[in-house]
Amino acid sequence: MRFRSPAQARFLCAIFFSLWMAGLIGCSKSKPGPDVVANVNGRKIMRAELEKYYGNQTAGNPQAPLGEQASSLRLSILEDLIQQEIMLQRAEKLGLIATDEEVDSKLNELKAPYTQEQFEKRLTEKKLTADDLKREIRRNLTVEKVLNKEVNSKVNITDGDITDYYGQHKAEFNYVEPEYHLARIVVSTQPNPQVHNLKSDKAQNDTQARAKIQQLLNRLESGEDFATVAMNYSEDPDTSSNGGDMGFVPESAMKSTDAAIREAVAKMQPGHISGVLPLLMPGTHQPVEYMILKMISREPAGQRDLNDPRVQQRIHEELRQAREQLLRAAFSEVARNEAKVDNYLAEEIMARSAKK
């Protein structure tokens, strides 16, 4: 090729170099084989791992997901695996991988409510082996250790913060009757446009709702944090943004709820979660929502002063939890932005869509 001038030659060479750097000419990015569904900073996430989690989360569902619903669930699970991998790589650099002792302690905690036979039966129902569960526990504990170091340790609640909060919410500490401090995760049988959970995840019908709420219960029973699951997946527009926290519910308010929910709350102790609870439409008795409740605490009747340790603890906890949840969400996004991620499953789905 002949150029009219040196300036023209330099100009065309600059264009050629820019195109080469952008990958528009020359060697294109090589893609992995079908066994790899994603790559995080050079580390592969295998399809077999994705399918194992998919089988775990769909275990116990009355009807297996099909078509686009199945693809959507796989994509959501893979996004969680990608985020976990980002956190695990950070944990390796920080020396925060959960130890065998920590894993065994958490495993024993999960096994405590069951006999060995019952526990093994639950593992079988969820298509898990003991090694699978220990691996999942190690992941969850490791991610939590990273978040504790990078986020939770930076949250500081002062005496002034507590005093200011009490002054603004003093009426809330006058309990005329016993109250329950509850949190919930809700999945609706009809999509609600007002729902904006972190994963933008919504069930579209009753079948999807029943499947999703069972998947979330499986996650909680595997040791995942209730507030994090609520922020990511709950479809309650009032509580999903603050980890499902409903605040304090008066005992009298429970009288108007479904009998199964009242019974579940009456039996729950602080720290415990319920099973799946359907909320039925009066008259038709058709489920409109499914929920999982967590009992945070129980409070007897009476006025609480600021010098009451329970008041200070409650305010401290509410302020800490709100700040932690905000910072955790921001930290996860920043960590994702800093990572080099290739989601090959997403590319596959887009390619299939283009062929239709």
What's a quick, concise take on this entry?
With 356 residues, the protein is α+β, with helices and mostly antiparallel strands. It has 12 helices and 9 strands. It folds into 2 domains: 37-154 and 335-355, Triger factor/SurA peptide-binding fold (Orthogonal Bundle); 177-300, Chitinase A, domain 3, CATH 3.10.50.
Structure commentary:
The protein has 356 residues and is of the alpha+beta class. The protein has two domains: 37-154 and 335-355, Porin chaperone SurA, peptide-binding domain (Triger factor/SurA peptide-binding fold), CATH 1.10.4030; 177-300, Chitinase A, domain 3 (Roll), CATH 3.10.50. It contains twelve helices and nine strands. The protein has helices at 6-22, 47-58, 67-94, 100-111, 116-125, 130-150, 159-168, 206-221, 226-233, 259-267, 309-338, 344-355; strands at residues 36-40, 43-46, 174-175, 179-188, 245-250, 277-280, 287-299, 302-303, 341-343. It has a four-stranded antiparallel beta sheet with strand order 5-4-7-6, sandwiched between helices. Strands 2-1-9 form a three-stranded antiparallel beta sheet. A two-stranded antiparallel sheet has the order 3-8. The model is unreliable at 9-28 (pLDDT under 50).
What descriptive keywords fit this protein?
Chitinase A, domain 3; 52% helix; 356 residues; single chain; four-stranded antiparallel beta sheet; Triger factor/SurA peptide-binding fold; alpha+beta
